[in-house]
Write a structure and sequence with these properties.
This protein has a 4-stranded antiparallel beta sheet, with no helix packed on it. The protein starts with a helix and ends with a strand. Helices cover 15% and strands 41% of the residues. It is globular, with a radius of gyration of 15 Å. It has one domain (17-106): Sandwich (Immunoglobulin-like), CATH 2.60.40. The chain is mostly beta strands. It has helices at 3-14, 24-27; strands at 30-33, 43-47, 56-62, 67-73, 77-80, 86-94, 99-106.
Length: 107
């Protein structure tokens, strides 16, 4: 079974919906800037997905999988700062089940 068939089965059988990193070129649901950023300046998360008022969860995880930050927002623009310098994975989970993941660098 190829990768697309696996994704189709996962979506149909388990109800899993996600946005792969490669899909960001065509249907990017969010922007993170500046990236890289400084700890004191932080970064802005700009959600481009409709129905953002329904809420979405933001998780910032270290590269070894530890949860560094988590919150639920209902605004399209959010600033996150005072995060220790490192490389992180930013995961945004929308109420409709879609998920987007971006690499964020704080220096």
């Amino acid at each position: 079974m190829d990768d697309q068939a696996c994704r189709d089965v996962a979506c149909n059988v388990f109800g899993i919906r996600s946005i792969q990193l490669g899909d960001a070129l065509t249907s990017e649901p969010l922007r993170v800037f500046p990236n890289p950023s400084s700890s004191t300046q932080g970064f802005e998360l700009d959600v481009l997905k409709p129905n953002v008022n329904d809420g979405y969860q933001v998780k910032l995880m270290s590269m070894d999988g530890r949860l560094i930050y988590s919150n639920i927002f209902t605004k399209a623009k959010v600033v996150i700062k005072d995060i220790p310098p490192s490389a992180y994975l930013l995961e945004v989970v929308f109420n409709d089940g879609c998920k987007a993941v971006k690499k964020v660098i704080i220096n």
